[in-house]
């Protein structure tokens, strides 16, 4: 009767998968509080709406940075809300939860996340590397003696891993991902056009005309946005093209590609042969950036497959790993 939750506690969004029910929650990892009384006002979607629009006494915070807890108390409050919200209508027993975590997270960061989950109402809390969760969520048979390569580009981190026989053979975790791409778009608007734009506008630009691969189709994309003129302090319209945005985000995209290539070069030959035959599996929000698939294929000379439902892979994999108890035990044994 006890529920099993798979949680993707992401820097940008939190997703909860309940075994037998699927994804039951998908909300921004944001919490709004009154900074004087420290009272929680909103969590998730409603809190995100407040970003950049709050009065002086209200602050909208992302308590996770680079995929790990940056503010423990606020992260605890947010995680408690998400667990309680996800448990409504299900068993009254406390759930067992499995949470995805970046491969390079320190033992202190791992312990903080595990303790936060227990304090938030979990019966038991396990951690799983996000790359492993992504592979399981994508439906790959990770327990077979075959090489599987995963590239998961999230909000705070990019996880790159080669998996075989239920274990991670090699991994790279870099704290460069969607959030840094947003920051580069904000920087570009200010440095090249003297216009200030906010996080939500930058995210919209990334989603609609952001791209990583040079071609006429992406170059000719256009979008009009409203920002604040630095010189006059008044609202001003700005027209952006796909080519401009590709150039603006070139640095973080190049860093991601460099690390993917480095992982390919470090892969044992027998496993690399499997990967060349099967392809590289691409997941996370970054998988939806126009041209990301194509640029990885061009630079690695290996076919790239964008997984089905790339945004939910970690949560689904974290939930489904309960059925692969040997993998879970192995991961815990290696870490605790």
- Distance between the terminal alpha carbons, to the nearest Å? 27 Å
- Count of discrete alpha- or pi-helical segments spanning 4 or more residues: 13
Strands side by side in the biggest sheet: 3-2-1-9-10
Q: What is the CATH architecture term of the largest domain?
A: 2-Layer Sandwich
Radius of gyration, CA atoms, in whole angstroms: 20 Å
Number of domains: 2
Query: Structural class given helices, strands, pairing?
Result: alpha+beta
Average of pLDDT = 90
- Spell out the CATH superfamily of the largest domain: ATPase, nucleotide binding domain
Q: In the CATH hierarchy, what is the class of the largest domain?
A: Alpha Beta
Q: What characterizes the major β-sheet?
A: 5 strands, mixed
Beta-strand percentage range: 25-35%
| Global morphology | flat
Oligomer: single chain
Helix content: 25-40%
CATH topology of the largest domain: Nucleotidyltransferase, domain 5
The overall strand count is 18
Q: Give the low-pLDDT segments.
A: none
């Amino acid at each position: 009767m006890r529920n099993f939750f798979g949680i993707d506690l992401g820097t940008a969004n939190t997703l909860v998968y309940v075994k037998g029910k699927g994804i039951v929650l998908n909300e921004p990892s944001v919490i709004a509080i009154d900074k004087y009384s420290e009272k929680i006002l909103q969590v998730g979607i409603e809190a995100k709406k407040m970003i950049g629009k709050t009065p002086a006494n209200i602050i909208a915070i992302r308590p996770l940075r680079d995929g790990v807890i940056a503010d423990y108390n606020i992260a605890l409050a947010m995680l408690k809300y998400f667990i309680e919200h996800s448990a409504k209508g299900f068993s009254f027993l406390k759930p067992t939860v499995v949470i995805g975590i970046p491969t390079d997270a320190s033992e202190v960061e791992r312990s903080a996340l595990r303790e936060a989950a227990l304090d938030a109402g979990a019966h038991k809390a396990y951690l799983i590397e996000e790359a492993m969760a992504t592979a399981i969520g994508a439906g790959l048979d990770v327990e077979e003696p075959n090489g599987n390569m995963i590239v998961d580009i999230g909000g705070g981190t990019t996880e790159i891993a080669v998996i075989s026989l239920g274990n991670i053979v090699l991994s790279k975790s870099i704290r460069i991902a969607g959030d840094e791409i947003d920051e580069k778009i904000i920087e570009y608007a200010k440095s090249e056009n003297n216009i200030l734009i906010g996080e939500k506008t930058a995210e919209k630009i990334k989603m609609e005309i952001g791209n990583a691969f040079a071609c006429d189709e992406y170059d000719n994309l256009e979008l009009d946005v409203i920002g604040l003129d630095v010189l006059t302090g008044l609202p001003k319209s700005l027209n952006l093209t796909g080519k401009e945005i590709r150039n603006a985000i070139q640095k973080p995209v190049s860093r991601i590609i460099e690390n993917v290539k480095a992982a390919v070069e470090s892969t044992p030959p027998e496993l690399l042969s499997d990967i060349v035959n099967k392809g590289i599996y691409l997941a996370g929000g970054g998988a939806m950036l126009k041209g990301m698939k194509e640029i990885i294929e061009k630079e690695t000379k290996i076919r790239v497959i964008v997984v089905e439902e790339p945004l939910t892979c970690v949560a689904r994999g974290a939930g489904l790993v309960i059925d692969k108890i040997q993998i879970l035990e192995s991961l815990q044994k290696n870490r605790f």
